Inverse folding.
């Protein structure tokens, strides 16, 4: 991939990243904000020992409610060589991580692939690609064979919401094709003897304040496009107003219990399987500290 005219993400900003950062904030070197065991992913990802999460700096989405905004929008982190990224993967494995969890890595895919290639004979745990869902199919195809588990968001169908809150009017058009490609690469759920996911696709969806109908539409689309036993759905209630949510009064609140319960009812009616969060998950304390741990 030519980073002098970058088209890794759907923005296709064509930045010369050897000279200046792209729309995502990515430059010529990998930038990482945190690498540590994380206990708050889905149970089949975090397990008993934790998921080995690597938080990449920058993001091609600009969500006004992002809990990780110092990293995603602020681009907080430290530049490291690919050799150090490869070492981090092995260090997380040594600490007992059940998997390597690549968080928002779309704009660093070539570097990630190089690092994974370096350690392919020493890394013996699954690789998770943890994504906001706004991904180019062409970039995802580069990951085939290197990623075992896909963990994308499917945030919206409504174009007005995606434009207003994430500056991406084409979000569903792009993300729906991305999720279909992820399923093509990981068409079956494979678990180990301890119930940990080894291969497969988990589709996450965050229920937004006032977004009940859009959430239901997302679930209906999922049910119409995937065999129920081939994926897991993770429906999240953890929305917490932060960053620039205050600029949008309609989302400057928590999700109402009745809103969330109605989405859960539809999930049950559609016979989708997976994880449904308790309302108590809507706490800022579940967001990790971004302090260059493990870098």
């Amino acid at each position: 991939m030519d980073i002098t005219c970058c088209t890794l993400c759907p923005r296709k900003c064509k930045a010369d990243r050897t000279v200046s950062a792209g729309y995502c904030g990515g430059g010529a070197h990998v930038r990482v904000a945190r690498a540590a065991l994380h206990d708050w992913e889905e149970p089949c990802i975090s397990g008993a020992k934790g998921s080995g999460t690597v938080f990449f700096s920058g993001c091609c989405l600009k969500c006004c409610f992002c809990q990780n905004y110092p990293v995603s929008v602020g681009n907080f982190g430290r530049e490291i060589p690919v050799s150090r990224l490869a070492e981090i993967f092995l260090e997380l494995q040594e600490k007992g991580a059940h998997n390597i969890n690549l968080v928002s890595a779309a704009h660093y895919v070539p570097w990630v692939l190089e690092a994974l290639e370096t350690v392919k004979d020493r890394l013996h745990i699954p690789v998770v690609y943890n994504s906001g869902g706004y991904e180019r199919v062409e970039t995802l195809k580069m990951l085939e064979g290197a990623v075992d588990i896909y963990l994308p968001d499917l945030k919206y169908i409504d174009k007005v919401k995606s434009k207003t809150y994430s500056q991406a009017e084409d979000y569903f058009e792009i993300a729906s094709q991305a999720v279909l490609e992820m399923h093509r690469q990981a068409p079956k759920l494979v678990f180990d003897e301890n119930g940990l996911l080894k291969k497969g696709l988990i589709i996450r969806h965050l229920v937004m304040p006032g977004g009940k109908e859009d959430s239901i539409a997302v679930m209906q689309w999922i049910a119409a496009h995937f065999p129920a036993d081939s994926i897991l759905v993770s429906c999240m209630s953890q929305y917490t107003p932060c960053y620039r949510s205050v600029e949008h009064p309609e989302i400057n609140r928590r999700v109402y219990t009745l809103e969330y319960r109605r989405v859960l009812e539809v999930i049950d009616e559609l016979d989708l399987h997976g994880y449904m969060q308790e309302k108590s998950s809507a706490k800022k304390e579940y967001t990790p500290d971004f302090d260059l741990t493990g870098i």
User: Anything to note?
Assistant: The longest strand covers residues 197-206.
